[in-house]
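Review session, final week

We close the course with one last complete record, chosen because it touches almost every idea we covered. It is Chorismate synthase, a protein from Paucilactobacillus nenjiangensis with 391 residues. Go through it on your own first, then we will talk.
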Amino acid sequence: MRYVTAGESHGPELTAIIEGIPAGLHISADKINDDLHRRQQGYGRGNRMKIETDQVKILNGVRHQKALGSPITLNVTNDDHAHWGEIMSPTAEETPDNSVRKVTRPRPGHADLVGGMKYQHTDLRNVLERSSARETTMRVAVGSLCKQLLSELGVEVLGFVREIGGIEADADKLSQFEGLTDLKKVTDESETRTFDADADEKMKALIDETKRAGDTLGGVVEVIATGMPAGIGSYVGADTKLDAKVAASIVGINAFKGVEFGDGFQFAKNPGSQGMDEIFYSEETGFYRKSNHLGGFEGGMTNGQPVVVKAVMKPIPTLYKPLMSVDVNTKEAYKANVERSDTTAVTAAAVVAEAMVAITLAEALLDKFDTDAIDRLKAQLAAYKEEIKKY
Ligand SMILES: Cc1cc2nc3c(=O)[nH]c(=O)nc-3n(C[C@H](O)[C@H](O)[C@H](O)COP(=O)(O)O)c2cc1C
Ligand SMILES: C=C(O[C@@H]1CC(C(=O)O)=C[C@@H](OP(=O)(O)O)[C@H]1O)C(=O)O
């Protein structure tokens, strides 16, 4: 499976083309819209989310809600484009009025300056429009489709917020994920599917205070995937390790700076006796573990335990109290450009991280089995699971 997205933040629309989804997979636009809605939630987002109501259009590759096996096109309209028509028109000529509104004061922490140098853009809008996390809308749409595939294969994926600006999410809410092996029970409950759509009260107060100060916040998200069979990925080479692919897919999200699996950076402190997952055997289940310190990976392969990934998002780089920058034309020192911006977007980013893990796990499963048709894929997977159980 592979996919590509296209679209600028204030351009007319966003598109994704996905190739390699097995024929016969049932595809629900409602489920995609549900995840698009989740990505728009979260306390601390800017006014853009009040303008957009992200709804997917499935344009190609699906007939009567079933995948055809041909490339699938997904499309989401940018409602905000109505306010940017001329400036962001793909076809109209540039007017003197538009060129006056060029962005020339790059924002520290954004792609603005280096992107301008690299692509020889003099209007940094040409960089920021694509480097904007608006694009993650399509990754969530693709991820949602992949979650539908994974669910058919017995794999469930959920992302949620652990921490915003140093404040931990409600311990009671988090405790439901500890030691989890069957995510379906959690994801089936609608209340928990919007888990952390709003930050807890302490987080909200911090976000309000930070916004008043013209500053921003980052945080930590977690993604859990249950039901992955052992042996997906491989130890044989650096480019075949599935944990490495998951890490790359997470760091590929705008503003993500670090990833850990299982006990993660805690491994630096704990002795080996507290860091591995001892091996047990019963005839009924085959080999199994009673702990999951390693977050579901050994040797770059899934080991049958839930995949547990945590990741850190840096604070939003655009500040209403802007940092110093230099105008790329005059070379004079100025305050950086201010684009309308979120104070924090960790809640939305948890949904994006969930999507990226879903995409990466779906790709890995599709790499291993015959993927022309969903029923054959399911039969092959079932046979594989039976085989490894009997090992
Ligand atoms: C869901 C989401 C929303 C974001 N919203 C904003 C925003 O409103 N303003 C901003 O400056 N950065 C925002 N970012 C982060 C920037 O897109 C990102 O920091 C920037 O493109 C530079 O990329 P890098 O941080 O990966 O180096 C957001 C990121 C995500 C994942
Ligand atoms: C549009 C989205 O997020 C945007 C991500 C973003 C950035 O720089 O990454 C900057 C802001 O863009 P705008 O100036 O249009 O408000 C966010 O709103 C979205 O998540 O759909």
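Two points worth writing down before the exam:
The radius of gyration is 22 Å.
DSSP finds 13 helices and 17 strands in the chain.
Good luck, everyone.
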